[in-house]
From TrEMBL:
Protein name, as recorded: Pyridoxamine 5'-phosphate oxidase
Organism: Bifidobacterium longum
Biased composition (Basic and acidic residues): 14-33
Pfam family, one: Pyridox_ox_2
PANTHER family named in the record: 5-NITROIMIDAZOLE ANTIBIOTICS RESISTANCE PROTEIN, NIMA-FAMILY-RELATED PROTEIN-RELATED, FLAVIN-NUCLEOTIDE-BINDING PROTEIN
Xref: InterPro entries: Pyridox_Oxase-rel, Split_barrel_FMN-bd
Gene3D superfamilies, sorted: Electron Transport, Fmn-binding Protein, Chain A
Length: 215
């Protein structure tokens, strides 16, 4: 089994003994694709434009793609996603109908997706960077907290981190958030073509001077 050196510790490329246990989250099977570095996680979230949010309400299961802003606490590992919407609609109806105004949700986002051709049809795949998790959606009532949520949205979607909102502007929309309970980050990198790898090896060899023999 191949091994990978991560943060000074070697771990298996695959975990083959994971299984579902009620109330617990299984570890990612492809350990070699799991990302745990906080800076890398934040960079992947920042590179995503859309998050898909899934939830169940009185009408059944549904999933909706949304623009978002975010805060990521690299100390606690907590991810907070921020959203704005019209005052009414299915999402907000579901949140308000949930116990305590807190709706369990699942979410996922992806970036850098690219088809990877294989030598046979069974060897084709996809390079990607992704976040998958679950958490709790709730409405935001505090004016300053709403303003912060809108600022994260502008920073994420328009790359404008210092936008100021008047109280009237903040009150004109509904702000809500998802606080993560658990999420994982996974990356499958695009393999280097054999020709490129061979050329890089040749280049490194050519750039290395031959050893000098002692006279």
């Amino acid at each position: 089994m191949s091994m990978e050196n991560i943060a000074g510790a070697r771990k298996p490329a695959k975990r083959e003994d994971e299984h579902t246990v009620a109330g617990e989250h299984r570890m990612m099977r492809r350990a070699d694709r799991e990302v745990t570095n906080p800076e890398q996680i934040a960079a992947i979230v920042a590179a995503c434009d859309i998050v898909e949010v899934a939830y169940a309400d009185a009408e059944g299961l549904t999933i909706v793609p949304l623009n978002f802003g975010f805060d990521y606490d690299d100390t606690t590992g907590k991810l907070t996603l921020w959203f704005h919407s019209a005052p009414r609609g299915r999402k907000l109806d579901a949140i308000r109908a949930a116990a305590g105004g807190r709706l369990p949700v699942a979410f996922t986002m992806q970036t850098d997706c690219e088809v990877v051709a294989g030598r046979t049809t069974c060897n084709w795949g996809e390079a990607f960077k992704s976040i998958v998790g679950n958490g709790t959606a709730s409405p935001v009532e505090d004016l300053d907290e709403c303003r912060h949520g809108l600022q994260t949205l502008m920073a994420q979607q328009a790359h404008m981190p210092n936008v100021e909102f008047t109280d009237a502007q903040v009150r004109s929309v509904t702000v809500w958030k998802i606080e993560s309970d658990y999420f994982t980050t996974k990356v499958r990198t695009k393999p280097v073509p054999r020709e490129s790898a061979a050329a890089a090896t040749t280049s490194r060899c050519a750039a290395t001077p031959p050893p000098v023999k002692p006279s």
